[in-house]
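Q: I have 746 residues here and want to know how they pack in 3D. Can you give me a structure?
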Amino acid sequence: MKCSLDNMDTKTTLNELERQELLETVRKLQSQVADVLSADDFHKIKEILLKAVQTNSLHRDQFGLNPLLFDLQTAVITVEEIGLNRASIISILLHDCVSIGVISIDDVAREFGDDVAHIIRGILRVNELYARNPSIETENFRDLLLSFAEDMRVIFIIIADRVNLMRQIKDRGEIEERTRVATEAAHLYAPLAHKLGLYLIKRELEDLSLKYLEPDVFYMIKEKLNATRAARDLYIANFIAPIEEKLKTTGLKFHIKGRTKSIHSIWQKMKKQKCKFEGIYDLFAIRIILDSELEKEKQDCWQVFSIVTDMYRPNPKRLRDWLSVPKSNGYESLHITVMGPEGKWVEIQIRTERMDEIAERGLAAHWRYKGVKDSGSKLEDWLKDIRSALEHQTDSNEQLMDRFKVDLYSDEVFVFTPKGDLFKLPKGATVLDFAFQIHTNVGAHCTGGKVNGKNVHIRTKLQSGDQVEILTSTKQVPKQDWLNIAITPKARAKIRQSLTEQEMKVSTFAKEMLERKFKNKKIEPEESTMMKLIKKLGYKHVTEFYKAIAEEVLDVNTVIEHYQAMVEREANPNAFSTEVRSADSYVATTPDDHAQGNADVLVLDNNLKGVEYSLAKCCNPIYGDDVFGFVTVNRGIKVHRQDCPNAQLLRERMSYRVLRARWAGKGTKQYPVTLHVVGQDDIGIVNNITSIINKEKNIMLRGISIQSSEDGLFAGTLTVMLDDQNQLNQLIKKIATVKGVKNVTR
C-alpha cells in the first residue's frame, strides 16, 4: 500500500507533515495485519484508494481532517487497541470509496466477501444518520441507536473512529462542533466502550470529553496529579513491597502494577463526595497480574486474595467477585479494597494475564483464547434486548437516551430459578423484570414472587444470589403502574405493548357495540359528524371516547340521541331558534334534577328491595362515607364516594344519571379498606402497626405489603376489613401514633 500520493486533488492534498504521517501509518498497519490481509488484498485496496484520490471526490471533514489518513489511523486503532479482523479493517478503508461511488457494494462483496459488504452497509447507515444531525431530541437518534445494535463490529468501528476524532480535534473546527463531538463521546461512546469491555478506550474518551467540555477542571486535576506524583509513587511502592515479598515465597509467577484513577473518575468522586481534590484518598488502584495456567486461574487468584487480606484489613462491602460469574462482556477479576498505611483505602484487582488482556481490550481479546467459554452469545443477547426495546419504544427521546445509557453502564445481578438456572439482570431489577426475563407470558400474569422462600411484591429489587420463584394468575394483566416498577428494556417494551393491546380491545368492543346500536335504529353514522360529536362531548381522542363507553361512563343510547340531534341541526339550522339548545349545549347544561333538595334520595339499607345497587371498586365506599349513586346501563346503580377520583367526570358528563344517596340504619357487614403508610424503617415498626390492628375489635388484617427504600424510609399498604367510617378514623389515628410512622392515608 505504499501508493503514490502526488496526484491527489487539492481538496485532499496532504502537507508534508501529513504525508510523513500517512506513510508511517501505512507501514505500521502493514506490519500489524500482514498475517490477516493477503498481498492480493493489499493490491486491490491500493488500486481502489488511488482511484478515489484521482476522482477528486474525497473531501476533508469539518475539522479539516484528510479522510484517507483518518481511515488509516482508525484502522490502526482497531488493530492495536481492539483487535478486529480482516473484514473490519477492509471495511474501514473502503467505506468512503463506496459512499462516493468509486466501487459498488456488490463489487466489494465479489472482491472481498459478503462479510465486508455487510459491515460497510452498517457504517454507511450510521454516516447517513449522522448527516441528518441526530441529536437526542430527534427521531433519527433512535434509528442511530438501532443501527448500532445491528452488528457488533460496526459498534467497534464507530468507537475506534470516535477515539481517533477525539484525539485530533483539540485546536480544530468550531467550538460548537467540538462540544457536540465531546458530548456524544461522554454520553454514548464511552458507555458503549464500557459495555464491550474496552476500559482503556472508555477511560480515554471520558478524559478527553472532560478536557473539551470542562478544560479548567481537567487541567486543575491534571496539575494536582502531577504535583503529587512523587508522594503517590512512594506510597504505592511501600504498599506493594510486603505483598511482593510474600507472593514470591509461594512460587507464583506475577507482576504488580500501580495505576492512578482517570481524571474523569476523580472529578466524578469530587462531585459525588462534594469535596476538593485533596479530599479524595483512593486516587489509585493496585493490580496483581498472575501468569497462571487456565485450569489453575481461580485457585491462584483466591490464594493471592487470602495473602493480601491477611496483611491488610479488607472492607467486606467492597468485595467484587467476577471470577465465579464473569460480566456479560467477558470481564473477569477479583476486586477488594483494603486499609493501607496512613489509614488510606486502596483498591486491589487480582487477575491473570488472560483476564487482564480481556479487561484492557474487551470482547475482541476474549475470542482469541481457546478453551474459554465464549461471551459472544451474551453480547448478542444484549444487542437483541436493545433492538427489541428500541423497536417498541414509546418514551421520549431524552428518556430513551437515559434508558439506553443506564442499560449500558448498569452493573449486573445474578439470580437463580428454583431449579438452579442462572439469569443475569441489571442492578435495580425487580421481581417483575425477572418474570419478563423468563417469558413474556410469565411476566404478563405475574402477581408476585418468592425470594429465598419468602413472599414478596412484584416491585421487590433483586440481589445477586437470590433464588426467585414467580407467582402467576391467569386473571392478572399488565397495568399502567408497572412501568414505574420495571427497569429492563424488554419488560417495559412488553408492558407498553400489552397496555396498547388492552386499549385496542376495549375500544374495538365499544365501537362494535355502538355500531350495533346504530344499526338496530337503522342509522348509518357519518364519520365526520361522529368526530364532531366526540369533540363536543369533551373527548380529545377517539380511544378515550370508546373507553368511556366500555366503562359505562358514557351511555350508548345517549350518544345516539346526541348524534341525531346534531344531524338534525346541521340539516335544518334555521328550524332552531336561539332558545332551543343544540346538542353540545344540551350536554353541558342539562340540570341535575336529582341534586335538588326535593329530589329522590337513594337510601342505602340492607333491607332495600327492588333496587339493584353495588359499591364501586374505584373508591371502595364504606358505611358512613359521603356517597352518591350513578345509574349504569345494565349493572344497576353504582355507589361512589363523593371524593371518588371519577366523581367530577361523572357529574360533568353524565349529571342526569347522578343520584343523591345516604346510608340508613347501621352497617351490618364489613368493608375492605386499603391504607397507605409511610414511616421510618426501624426494627419492629411493622410489628407495632400489625399489633395495633390485631388488638382492635371487629377489625381484620387481610393483606400487607411493605417496601424499604435506600433513604431509610418504608412505604406500604395495609388492607383491612372493618365496619364503618368511624371505626376507620379511629384506626388511622392509632396507627399515626406509632413511633416512626410519618403518614397514614386511605
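Q: Anything worth noting?
A: The chain has a mean pLDDT of 78. The chain has five domains: 16-217, 223-374, 498-589, 593-663, 671-745.
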